[in-house]
Amino acid sequence: MNSEADHAQLQFEIQRLRKTLAQQLSESGDMVNGIRELDEMLYNGACFQHAEEDGDDDFFADFGRARQVLGQLESDLRQFNAVISGEDDSSTSPLQGLLGEWREHLIVLQSKGGDAGDEAVQVLRQDIAQMRDQCQSLRQELQEVEQQRDDETAQTLQLQRQLQLLNDERAKMSESDDQVQHLQNECQQLKDTLEGLKGEREQLAEKCQELQQESSHVDDLRQQLHNAQSAGEQAQERLHGIENELNQRQQECDNLRRTVEQGEQTHVSLQETLDHQEAALVQCRTERDAAQEKCDHWEQTSIALREEIEALQQEKAANEALVANLRGDYERSSQEVSATAQRLQQEQAKVEQLQEHIHSQEERIRQYDITTSELQEKLQQSQDQVQSLEQQCERIQENADTLEQSMASLQQEIATQQQQLDEAQAAASQAERSSNDIQAQLTTEQAHRQSLEEARAQAQAEIDKLQQVQADLEQRLAGVDANQAERDAMMSQVQHQREEEQRRSEQLQAALEEAEQTVRQKQEELALAQQSVQDKDQECAHLQERFEQLQREHEAVQEKLSEISADSDQRKAQIQELQLERQAMQEAVNENDVQSRQQQEQLATLHENLRRREEEYAALQKDLAQSEQTVAALREELEQLRHRSDISGESLTVTVSERDRLRHELAMAQARREDELRDLRNQLQLRHEDMLAERESEIRQQEEEIARLRSALKDAHNIVASQADPHLIAERQSVQDDNMAQLRLSLEEQRLRHESELQALADRDRSMKQLLNEAREAVLAAREERRRDQAMIAELRAQQS
Q1: Of 11, 32, 119, 171, which is least packed with CB atoms within 10 Å of its CB?
Q2: For residues 790 and 291, what is the distance between their CA atoms, to the nearest angstrom?
Q3: How far apart are the C-alpha atoms of 472 and 490, rounded to whole Å?
Q4: CA distance readout (Å), 228 to 1, 232, 440, 611, 771
Q5: Which residues are CB-neighbours of 507 under 8 A, at least 6 positions away?
Q6: DSSP-assigned letters across all residues of 374-397
Q7: Which residues, in sequence order, are CB contacts of 103 under 8 Å at separation 6+?
Q8: Neighbouring residues of 687: CB distance < 8 A, sequence distance ≥ 6
């Protein structure tokens, strides 16, 4: 901003020098014209009439004729003093007539000067009113800039609220219950989600830093607004200065009128001034030579500065081309990210198919449970049959008492029965082994349930960790959004869900204990059955057939278990392949994120280089302004010297030239006011463009953050899609679609805003080039004016010699 103010000040000083030189030349011409009018009024154009007849229009020859008129006026004033003192009474009547004519001419000149002063005051008042209106319009523009900043702050708050809604949806989606059969797969998915949440936590920390930077940027904008207001106050102070200068000019007119009335007293001072003029001209030669050397030195310095400025502009164009290339790379990376998102959606569809396959396998496991329950019922039936066999054995024992008498005749039958008894014992031993196998199966089933219980406990621990991470994230988000009541409600819901999960775990534990108790009862019943089987000697064939039937059923169950294990192995292999593919996709996304961060760092370095170049450009402009100030000082010295050389004739030039000079000063003040307003508009435009560039970088970072949040939300949605309610999923999906539509609209608006900002940057570059061209033209004009001054000084020296 200082560099822009210095550049504007430099332009203003150059214009002021040009106008000052023009004013000095016009004043010199006005002075000669005033002396010509005095010659016409007092001596009927005796001195200048011969020049007009001869056709001699030399400007410096007119100075000699003006001195001749002043010498004649001096002799007349001396004669007038002699008449007043009574020394010479011969020419009293003609001098009195001449004095009366002079008084009439002075009255006419005074009336003209008063009218010119009134007109100048009226014009200045109108210019002051216009400048006040323009200051009011500038204030309105500043208010519009403030309103735009407020709108951008409101958009930022809206994005934050949308982010909060997305977090709430994620929290609601994570509230669904997890099934025990899918704990291992879900643990891996929850770990991936935990890593995503860690990345989001880092992104939220970066977002907080960006918000702090935005607050500092708002403070900078306020400071710039204060600077603009101070510039407006300075412009108003300049207007007051112009008014004061006008009053001073009016006082000078009054003083000059008094000087004309007191012509007798000023005669001596004019003579002394003419005597000192020759000495002043000799001194002017030395001072002009030194000023000429200084001007040459500063001109060389300004040329070197312009070359450096052109080199900086070329480097700036190269940096802008590099920025355009980086933007193209960013667009290509965004297209790659969209392609990876589509591949992720395809993988999610595959995961859904696998989940359906897992559901079918669960259905098979339920059928296996039904078959085991049927086997248990059949076992109970076999136990009932064993009890009936015991009753039959009792009846056989009663019959044995009756058949003891026929023992001898039935020894052969007893031998055959002994063989059958051996076979029955072998069958009983096989039945015992089968019962042991069934008991082993029950123990393995119990161990499998125990392992499931442990896996459930581990999953519960992971869920607690994720809930703890979620609580930490919610606590950190509390610094950005002050919705404490909603977070308390969410925490109460989470606590309620934890209690429900605890009750469910207790219910499962009770069910497991009941199953263990039933297993113990079955084991006791099997032990009783084994004891009863050892005592049975009859119905061995029936037991053998029953045992073979049980063996066939056991083989069928084993085949089903082998099929289920093969399907589970295949499912695990497919899940591992999907996990590997997901890891590969995640690595690709991470690589894209790394590339985007590198591009952002490159953009930051480019912006830093541009800022440094602008600072160097501001320093060069400051040096150029200092050089122009020195040139202005030399101009002022030149003006003072010219004022010294022309002071002898200024006391007698209170004529129409004064009115023209006042009008010229009014025109200068109006041009100066237009220059200042143009500088203020340029400063406001540059500030607005800087603010838009910063907003562009911030919006780009917000878009990247929204894309990452979108991917994290899709992962969370895929995690809980299999357990959630279809209606709830549809409702959340509609809310999410609405939010995404709003985000798309906001991104489209931001893109359009970015294009307008780029157009503004291009306009800014064109305006900078135009300003440099104007500065170059002003320097050339100053050189030309300096050459003219040198030529005029040389002519004055020749005329003086």
Answers
A1: 119
A2: 11
A3: 13
A4: 10, 6, 90, 21, 20
A5: none
A6: HHHHHHHHHHHHHHHHHHHHHHHH
A7: none
A8: 1, 145, 221, 224
Instruction: Give the pLDDT band of residue 356 (cuts 50, 70, 90).
Output: confident
Question: Which amino acid type is present at position 457?
Answer: A
The contacts of residue 131 (CB under 8 Å, 6+ apart) are 235, 236, 239, 673, 677
What DSSP state is assigned to residue 182?
G
User: How is residue 168 written in tokens?
Assistant: 């709430």
CB < 8 Å & 24+ apart, contacts of 116-124: 116/658, 116/659, 116/662, 116/663, 117/249, 117/250, 117/253, 117/662, 120/246, 120/249, 120/659, 120/662, 120/663, 120/666, 121/246, 123/663, 123/666, 124/242, 124/243, 124/246, 124/666, 124/669
CA 772 – CA 769 distance, rounded (Å): 5
Instruction: Give the type of residue at 286.
Output: T
DSSP string, 27-73: HHHHHHHHHHHHHHHHHTTHHHHHHHHHT---HHHHHHHHHHHHHHH
Q: What is the pLDDT of residue 150?
A: 77
DSSP 536: -
Q: What is the average pLDDT score of the chain?
A: 65
| Residue linked to tokens 């007293």 | 265
Given a contact cutoff of 8 angstroms between Cβ atoms, the answer to whether 27 and 661 are in contact is: yes
Question: Which residue bears the tokens 């499962």?
Answer: 508
Q: What is the dihedral of CA 297, 298, 300, 306, to 10 degrees?
A: 170
State the SS3 of 609-635: HHHHHHHHHHHHHHHHHHHHHHHHHHH
138-152: per-residue pLDDT in tens? Answer: 667 667 767 777 777
DSSP characters over 60-125: HHHHHHHHHHHHHHHHHHHHHHHHHHTS--TTHHHHHHHHHHHHHHHHHHHHHHHHHHHHHHHHHH
Two tokens, residue 759: 């157009």
Sort residue 55 into left (φ over 0), alpha (ψ -120 to 50) or beta.
left
The Cβ-side half-sphere exposure at 257, using a 13 Å CA radius, reads: 17
Q: Is-contact 427 544, C-beta < 8 A?
A: yes
In the chain, where the domains are located? 2-350+593-800, 351-394+422-477+487-589
Provide the token pair at 420: 């059958």
Give CA separation, 592 vs 338, 340, 598, 708, 715, in Å: 11, 10, 10, 11, 18
Nearest to 692 by CA among 751, 757, 768, 760: 757
Amino acid letter, 125:
R
pLDDT score recorded for residue 25: 59
pLDDT of residue 724 exceeding 70, the answer is no
Check whether 655 has a pLDDT greater than 60: no
At residue 172, does pLDDT exceed 60?
yes
Under 8 Å between Cβ of 209 and 755: no
Q: Can you tell me which residue has the tokens 């005749």?
A: 409
For the chain, give the number of residues.
801
**Does residue 648 surpass a pLDDT of 50?**
no
Encode pLDDT of 363-382 as tens digits: 766 776 676 667 667 666 76
Give the separation between CA 454 and CA 784, rounded to whole angstroms. 96
pLDDT digits (tens, 9 = 90+) for 22-62: 666 566 666 677 777 777 766 766 777 655 555 445 556 77
- Report whether 317 contacts 606 (CB < 8 A): no
Tell me how crowded residue 241 is: count the other CB atoms within 10 A of its CB: 11
CA gap 649, 507 in Å, rounded: 118
What's the whole-number mean pLDDT along residues 502-516?
A: 67
Kindly report, residue by residue over 546-577, the tens digit of the pLDDT. Answer: 667 666 766 766 676 667 667 667 766 766 77
User: Residue 158: pLDDT above 60?
Assistant: yes
Torsion angle, alpha carbons of 445, 447, 452, 457, to 10: 150
